[in-house]
Amino acid sequence: MGQQPSQLEPHSSEHVERGIAAISLEQEHRPLNVSMRGLANDILVDHIFPLLDVRDIINLRRASFQINCLSTEGIVWKRILKRAQHYLPPVPPTPKYSLCNLSAAEAERLLTRAVSLHDRYDRRIVRPLRRWEIDAGRTVLDMALLPGGQYLVASVADQSKTRFAIDLYTTDFAYRLGFPVARYDVPSRAFHLRAKYMTFRGRPGIAITYVRRDYRRPQFAERYGNINSFPPEWEDPRWRRVLMYECAAVYAPLDALEAVCEDVRPVCPVRLRVRTMPRPFQVLAEITSRSRMSGPVVEDNVRGAPLLAVLKRGPGGDCIVYKNLDGGAGTTMVCSPQPDYQGLPQSIMAFMILPPQNQFLVVRRASPAMDQDQLAQLQDLGPYYFSELYDIVHAPGTTFTRTAVSRSAVHDSRGNYWHNVWLSDPGFGPSPSPELERAPQVANMKPIVIFVSAKFSDGVAWDIVRPSSDSASGIYRYALSEDEAFVPIERLDSAIEDLAALFEHRVLLGSTRPLVCNISRHGRRAGSGHSFRISVIRGLRDRCLLRYEDESVSMEVDDGEAETESDAQSQGDDGECEPAGDVKVAHFELANEDLREVSAIAWDETIGRLCVSYSRHTRIAVFDFA
Where is this region: Disordered (predicted)? Predict the structure, then answer.
């Protein structure tokens, strides 16, 4: 800036010297922190805090007692929530978590978790900030985490493995850590457990889906033994006449769960209040069959109705059975054969519901009716893998064959048999607390990630189904094209392909931050199928996935430097990410004793929480990485 012209005369040097002396004396006796003491609280709250980021407030309150006290006010964090530049962890869709009812601690926790997760996940080695435990009181067989960290659902069994139930725990700091709030008894072991927030008949709650297996008649148990000792994937065609599979969807309203959690003292009035309350769980729908079922999915708005769907693997071919939760008979959909491979048997590997476009996304396999060892010897006969989209049509009580609306290219595995296929959930359903949603979050849907583990491949491969906007309506949709390759998984060299048999790979699903667990095939207890040993856990950091979460957040590299020009060039002119150079791996560092005798594991990518249960203990270890 230019200097202002002096108002003194050129010969008045005495006035200049006096002015300099006065300024020096004033600076010498000025208190060092006069700038902080001179600002009133309302000035800081109304004019200074809105200009600060979450990291700035956290750092400043360590050095200033005044800012530390003001940072406990809810108005500070709620104003930042309205202009938040990070994707916030979801919260239950109830009035308790609306913006006006959020406490200062809850609002601060939402923001600090979002910032911390982004910073810590972008490291080569990720260590947990905190480890704590939940005593389930029973052996945990399967788990599912609700996004946001408020609730945990577990399939449990007693010590004798004769009594089974589904327990619901609160894992939020506002309640009790690991506080059990509801239990639903089931006749046999519940597996393929899934849970999500869902609004049913205008009432928000938690929808839980599971599959269980039991004998068709009680006397069969005495003849054939305990069916619950077999792993969920076990199947023997000779047992089909004595077994029964059941897929069920149960629902617990959130207002009833929060009413139990509001008062935790004194104990006696709470117990009396709980006894007078109705049962927390309501059975929405049940689907039974003699054929093995897997992959239950529930959505609350498919053509205006809530829907339960499950994959049924019958002797005549795989099919999808779905049922309206409002009532009525179920519908069975059979997928039409792929035109190029009509002479081969075709089965379904995985599927999911796409509510915005009322369609099923299905991953299928076309291969001869042989086992895996025989298929490995047929290098020129597949198996062949592809994905398809099918329209959902409600036709209660009928079985019909549908033709795919669109499909992807076919992948010839050349004997590299696919063991497992996982589909990530992009987070359909009601938006928890719409007041905390930003416009880009609604318009920019997350991608669907298809993960694959194969017989002769070390690790997992993935493919991304990106949402695209319709130019006419502006609505985002998922589309498939036969011009694009489908999950190009590579096969190991024949000299080292035996290395793939050492570990089994399991994906802890996430649309932006998935984890991959290496499970030793020699670490399972013989004959149990209920425990395994994890060798290492790695986090996948794909820029193509992270940019869908929040494009306004810069993608720093591990050393904290800015994004390089080569990284910026990895995205094309249309914003598409190129596979090369965009993927990094983060190593999750946990103690060896925390990864042994594991019975179930669950991951919540929205807050960076990992839960591990053990086969010989009733405890659940919880690791918070943000």
Answer: 555-578
